[in-house]
Amino acid sequence: MNTxxxxxxxxxxxxxxxxxxxxxAGIVQRGIxxxxxxxxxxxxxxxxxxxxxxxxxxDTEPTWHDTPISDLSREERWKYEQDPFAIWDxxxxxSNQNQPPTDDDRFRFKYFGLFHVxxxxxxxxxxxxxxxxxxxxxxxxxLAQLAEDHGCGRADLTTRSxxxxxxxxxxxxxxxxxxxxxxxxxxxxxxxxNIRNITASPITGLDPNELLDVAPLAExxxxxxxxxxxxxxxxxxxxxxxxxxxxISTVADTNDIGFIAVRINEGxxxxxxxxxxxxxxxxxxxxxxxxxxxxxxxPDETVAVAAAMIRVFIQHGxxxxxxxxxxxxxxxxxxxxxSGMARFLEETEKLLAFPLIRVPASECEPRGPINRSAHLGxxxxxxxxxxxxxxxxxxxxxxxxxxxxxxxxxxxxxxxxLRLTVWQNLIIPNIPxxxxxxxxxxxxxxxxxxxASTVLAGTVACTGxxxxxxAATDTKSHAVALxxxxxxxxxxxxxxxxxxxxGCHHSCAQHYIGDLGLMGVKVSGEEGxxxxxxxxxxxxxxxxxxxxxxxxxxxxxxxxxxxxxAYTLQRxxxxx
Length: 576
Ligand code: SF4
What we know:
- The chain is of the alpha+beta class.
- 30% of the residues lie in helices and 18% in strands.
- It contains 15 helices and 21 strands.
- The chain has helices at residues 14-25, 33-42, 74-81, 88-97, 103-109, 137-150, 173-182, 215-226, 302-316, 327-333, 339-350, 400-413, 436-445, 475-489, 556-570, and strands at residues 114-116, 124-127, 134-136, 154-157, 163-168, 199-200, 240-243, 257-264, 273-280, 291-297, 357-358, 377-380, 386-391, 397-399, 417-420, 426-432, 459-461, 499-502, 516-523, 526-533, 545-552.
- The protein has a six-stranded mixed beta sheet.
- Strand 19 and strand 20 form a beta hairpin.
- Helix 1 packs across helix 7 and helix 14 (475-489) crosses helix 15 (556-570).
- It is globular and about 60 Å long.
- The structure holds iron/sulfur cluster.
- The site of iron/sulfur cluster has 11 residues, from loops.
- Iron/sulfur cluster binds next to loops.
């Protein structure tokens, strides 16, 4: 199609015009003031000029601006040829004409959170941003209506405490963007080379064991990103997590930046209090966990430091090879044996108005224990008399009717708040003791379960071949079938088993960190899996090892049954 046709604004629908007005007015997020103020003031630079050559941050090191255009990757050239955020005339045209985008515009659409999923489907998936995974009941209800009106009638919970809606036709995308904005949500920057949904411990603010409520930090980080144009100029995607040091993990060690709350007691050079360790360069699909970079930050320094680190990555990250464009590879390129990390921290410090404090991790109290089952079932909160209920959502599939039921339960028995977890499950907080029985009954009446099972409750799966062109297998259906099969035969294991099922080597479901990890492969033309075992995160950190290089899905259940039998017979004490 000829995408250069002149657009006549007079032909815009009412909703398209409304969306444009709202879009250019900017999207205001909640609860950000004290932190954003510090972040903005703490940075030497915070303007689009930081993207120009010879900026102070560049010093003597050539930046990506010095790379000949012909050497840039295909996606970088697309960004260079047209700013992805400057394609509104095309979006309106595609919408008006109900046409799928060209390859380059398909990439640019992802900056708006819109994924055209051809050839798996001829439709769009919309990925939202839900900072900290915190949702309000009216938002969930509104998304249910949107999914029914224009999509497939379902939301998918993701491994970044986020939501995706599927099967929107091109003609509906402007209306869809308008409606999520009306719900106080945004999808801006949720795909392509951007900072993905900011995760936080899902019971932060409620957790009796936490060191600090990190929700305000996640929200401040989101607000900083969505209101700073240069935060959308990354060479590749980027993940950030805030861990409250409490009972539930955010798998912070799988992120590019993982902030972990720690305590410093009296008797150190640093005043006693709560600080953050900073883990860098987690990318488990490339078999690397994030490691402690030696910094100790005050809570109100975290957003500014993350922004400065991202700006260093923007300036110096690889723009020629997509496989080498993540933060890990920049630091690897800058030197081995810690010299690359030291250089990265020096470059970061140049962009900050305060010094970075380096303190060995050994001076901090070790992170408290993680309860692998705490995201499911009934648990007391820090607030006396209140509880949260963790609800299993198998592989994150949530039909509109259940979305409404959960929103109603949150309103009727809680405070209208819901939390999403990185395990593709959901939590309803703030339920008084006297309402627990009625709330759990309502959950069961909605066809959902709040009790932890051996496998299904800890199962995550990527989109698979029902909606992703890279997938070798139908991951979600296979994951549910396998988990139900194993739960039926091993109903009372004291250790939950995390099953991670991913459809290709991109590892969106992080198969390297599962107790049991499956990666989709073709086996003589049939759907099958590579099988890995022994992965873990946090205190159980480890990359899963290959057990079976490839096996047909139809042969897999009996093999896993034998594996589980051997595990239950031979394990020692509470061996995972
Ligand atoms: Fe698609 Fe591969 Fe990611 Fe699964 S892991 S969603 S198949 S890219």
